[in-house]
Design goal:
There is one protein chain. The protein has 82 residues and is an alpha+beta fold. It contains three helices and four strands. It has a domain of 45 residues. A two-stranded parallel sheet has the order 1-4. A two-stranded antiparallel sheet has the order 2-3. The mean pLDDT is 82.
């Protein structure tokens, strides 16, 4: 729902992890992030054992670093992790 809202609001195509598949997925993600106009990232995910607790999502941290290195506009969701 948030993805559709952002696409309507910005008139830009939004990509999420499930939009990528097949061979070369790492390259697809890297190319998409490094050429994006804007990257919005949530650095946390619900903990597997407790949906009220959040833990750091390492993959998203790496993707955020790619965005920073490519000098893309970046928005972070700073939910507190435990």
């Amino acid at each position: 729902m948030l993805k559709a809202y952002l696409e309507d609001l910005t008139a830009m195509r939004c990509w999420a992890a499930h939009d990528f598949d097949g061979a070369g997925i790492r390259g697809q993600i890297l190319a998409s992030i490094s050429t994006a106009r804007l990257a919005l990232t949530n650095l946390t995910v619900p903990a597997p054992s407790d949906s009220t607790t959040f833990v750091v999502n390492v993959n998203t941290c790496i993707e955020t670093g790619i965005s920073l290195g490519a000098a893309r506009a970046l928005g972070l969701d700073p939910r507190q992790s435990t």
